[in-house]
């Protein structure tokens, strides 16, 4: 039985960055650990598609996340590589660096109002 292996070079489908790099994921998980220890955040999830990867943060087992930290895989502008969205999908901040983005966003403590 013959093997039909092909070498694919410079194909746009096989991009270098398909996920968060180790340093980016470490920054996100450090923020997540801090907010979990404060009692603000409870759960997280990852969403991956062709255009972006997002780290979704949940306060409870709810239907939609309270924050989404997203990485655009094919940004039109370098300033649009990373962005944070709130629960309604509104963009809070955009940045070219994830560390700058995390430090600039005011991660407010959400409280249940009765």
Structure overview:
With 114 residues, the chain is α+β, with helices and mostly antiparallel strands. It has one domain. Helices cover 21% and strands 25% of the residues. The protein is built from two helices and five strands. It has helices spanning 22-38, 98-104; strands spanning 43-48, 52-58, 67-72, 82-86, 91-95. It has a five-stranded antiparallel sheet with strand order 1-2-3-4-5, covered by helices on one side. The termini are far apart.
What's the structural domain tally?
1
Radius of gyration: 17 Å
Q: What number is the mean pLDDT?
A: 81
In whole angstroms, how far apart are the ends?
70 Å
- Could you give a short account of the major beta sheet? 5 strands, antiparallel
Tags for this model:
21% helix; 114 residues; 5 strands; alpha+beta
Explain the layout of strands and helices.
Blueprint: H1 22-38, E1 43-48, E2 52-58, E3 67-72, E4 82-86, E5 91-95, H2 98-104
Quick structural summary:
This protein is 21% helix and 25% strand. The protein has 114 residues and is an alpha+beta fold. It has a five-stranded antiparallel sheet with strand order 1-2-3-4-5, covered by helices on one side.
